[in-house]
Specification:
The protein has nine helices and no strands. By secondary structure, the chain is mainly alpha-helical. It has helices at 2-22, 26-46, 50-74, 79-86, 90-112, 131-139, 144-165, 177-182, 185-188. Among the domains are: 1-76, Four Helix Bundle (Hemerythrin (Met), subunit A), CATH 1.20.120; 131-165. The longest helix is centred in the first third of the chain and has 25 residues, at 50-74. Helix 1 runs antiparallel to helix 2 (26-46).
Length: 202
């Protein structure tokens, strides 16, 4: 059953990844990307990496891919003009593709050669301990200050993005909450005995 699930997830990941690149409609490309993330999360569950699978679903599918989808759907972008500019960046793309392929080949050869011998400083984890529990124990004890520093960096980045995008616009009437609260009902409404046959006076 695990072999069937592995081949199923793998085939769907490969096909959806290819469709992300070859799709002419950007919305369809983002939807294929979401499908690839879901199946990659299934592969992570099969190998016992539940935390990475959760990150793929929550962070990449729930935030990044949906954000891409909203941006593509909301922005009025002329994709015909963008496709015309792709040919100008083709040499740079080919150089990057060759460099990435060379890195993959070097990595595979290094792995076949035996890999690196890394000294494990952390204590061994019991086999019955789940991956998420073991990661949480290390993250919130040994690397607590690093985790808090990462959160602080993200907070500063979020505040900076808000400050950079916030602009003061002229001609806008701001809301005065204290004036609205202190306003009396008789100041807001007026009782009029409207005569018959006459129009309303504004």
């Amino acid at each position: 059953m695990q072999a069937i699930a592995f081949y199923l997830f793998s085939i769907i990941v490969l096909v959806s990844g290819a469709l992300v690149i070859t799709s002419r409609n950007p919305v369809h490309a983002v939807l294929w990307l979401i499908l690839a993330f879901f199946n990659a999360a299934g592969l992570m569950v099969l190998v016992g990496a539940e935390f990475i699978a959760m990150l793929l679903v929550i962070v990449y599918v729930g935030a990044v891919a949906v954000l891409f989808l909203f941006v593509v759907m909301m922005l009025d972008v002329e994709f015909s003009t963008l496709r015309g500019r792709v040919s100008g960046y083709l040499p740079v793309g080919l150089v990057l593709a060759v460099a990435l392929a060379a890195e993959v080949v070097i990595g595979v050869n290094a792995y076949d050669a035996g890999g690196l011998q890394i000294a494990h400083r952390a204590a061994p984890i019991a086999g019955a301990t789940p991956n998420i529990q073991a990661l949480g124990n290390i993250l919130y004890t040994r690397y607590l200050f690093v985790f808090e520093a990462a959160g602080l960096v993200l907070l500063v980045a979020m505040v900076g993005a808000i400050v950079l995008t916030h602009r003061q616009r002229g001609g806008v009437r701001p809301q005065n909450v204290s004036r609205q609260v202190s306003r009396r009902p008789q100041d807001a409404t007026r009782n009029v005995n409207q005569p018959v046959g006459e129009g309303i006076k504004l």
